[in-house]
Amino acid sequence: MFELNNLLRENIKNLTPYSSARDEYTGEASVFLDANENAFGSPLETAYNRYPDPLQYRVKMKLSEIKGVPARNIFLGNGSDEAIDILFRSFCNPGVDNVIIVPPTYGMYQVSANINDVEARKVLLTEEYQLDLDGIAEAIDKNTKLIFVCSPNNPTGNSINRDDIETLLANFNGLVIIDEAYINYSRQKTFIQELTEYSNLVVLQTLSKAWGLAGLRVGMAFASEEIIEVMNKVKPPYNMNEASQQLALQALNNVSLVNLWIKETLEERDKLVLNLKEFDFVLDIYPSDANFILVKTTNAKAIYDFLVKHGIIIRDRSKVELCEGCLRITIGTPDENKTLIETLQQYK
């Protein structure tokens, strides 16, 4: 049976978080002489001399409206990568505990495991890029704390079978982290609505993809109030800067524009797939629920090098497990996709 307290590291249970100047008062004020800031302002058009809201309340309230989840169930970080790292630091004892990852998948799970000295047990996806539930069950032991599932998956682009994910959630006593960075492009609905059903569920999302804010580094985690409290306890006091908070708020008022971009991206994805199928060096194009496609080719490195010479950058994934011979291509604008196809027509 899942019990959060049994997962937490002892030092985190006993941790007294840093108390920032902005944590120590409630209500409104007009004179701030508490945080040793520069009272005269900033040498910029916008003043950033004051520390930002440590819990990003206004951004969370806006997200709460859009996502249909209470603000107390939202963690905001410096990209989803910060949320991933905090989960390791909160729940995994270095050199003792382990996590399960399911390659081919997003590389930061392995990197964070290495940084935190936590074993990452690999259970390869099946040939259809779905979970090997039997393999995962065999890999779990008493020290397995986290399972990471990316859906839609990067770099394969497909969504993971929902029933399989629910099987993990119902039977694993640790945390199951569903990384939904590309969920806006997917036919599958988000797992956010299942938070009340599974107390061991953490859902990661981002404003970097469909929302077009990769440069601001705004990542989100959705989980039970107890898990969010742990993450807020461990994070740096001011982990999201004021500029990112202000700009994120502005962007979140433009849902209709983002939805228009998503629709156009999906239309362009379908066109690009049809055009790429015409080339004899393309062996397969895997089904995608994301804003990219995985393309199996006769010679991935040669095609990649050819495109680089013509100023077009894609990702060579041919050395990734189960992605031999594959290139990952992001869906661009209509003009960018046209340039890609016209350039590939010159490839011999």
TrEMBL record:
<dbReference type="InterPro" id="IPR015424">
    <property type="entry name" value="PyrdxlP-dep_Trfase"/>
</dbReference>
<dbReference type="GO" id="GO:0004400">
    <property type="term" value="F:histidinol-phosphate transaminase activity"/>
</dbReference>
<comment type="pathway">
    <text>Amino-acid biosynthesis; L-histidine biosynthesis; L-histidine from 5-phospho-alpha-D-ribose 1-diphosphate: step 7/9.</text>
</comment>
<keyword id="KW-0808">Transferase</keyword>
<keyword id="KW-0028">Amino-acid biosynthesis</keyword>
<dbReference type="InterPro" id="IPR001917">
    <property type="entry name" value="Aminotrans_II_pyridoxalP_BS"/>
</dbReference>
<feature type="modified residue" description="N6-(pyridoxal phosphate)lysine">
    <location>
        <position position="209"/>
    </location>
</feature>
<keyword id="KW-0368">Histidine biosynthesis</keyword>
<dbReference type="InterPro" id="IPR004839">
    <property type="entry name" value="Aminotransferase_I/II_large"/>
</dbReference>
<comment type="similarity">
    <text>Belongs to the class-II pyridoxal-phosphate-dependent aminotransferase family. Histidinol-phosphate aminotransferase subfamily.</text>
</comment>
<dbReference type="GO" id="GO:0000105">
    <property type="term" value="P:L-histidine biosynthetic process"/>
</dbReference>
<keyword id="KW-0032">Aminotransferase</keyword>
<comment type="pathway">
    <text>Lipid metabolism.</text>
</comment>
<keyword id="KW-0663">Pyridoxal phosphate</keyword>
<dbReference type="InterPro" id="IPR015422">
    <property type="entry name" value="PyrdxlP-dep_Trfase_small"/>
</dbReference>
<dbReference type="InterPro" id="IPR015421">
    <property type="entry name" value="PyrdxlP-dep_Trfase_major"/>
</dbReference>
<dbReference type="InterPro" id="IPR005861">
    <property type="entry name" value="HisP_aminotrans"/>
</dbReference>
<dbReference type="Pfam" id="PF00155">
    <property type="entry name" value="Aminotran_1_2"/>
</dbReference>
<feature type="domain" description="Aminotransferase class I/classII large">
    <location>
        <begin position="48"/>
        <end position="344"/>
    </location>
</feature>
<dbReference type="GO" id="GO:0030170">
    <property type="term" value="F:pyridoxal phosphate binding"/>
</dbReference>
<protein>
    <recommendedName>
        <fullName>Histidinol-phosphate aminotransferase</fullName>
        <ecNumber>2.6.1.9</ecNumber>
    </recommendedName>
</protein>
<comment type="subunit">
    <text>Homodimer.</text>
</comment>
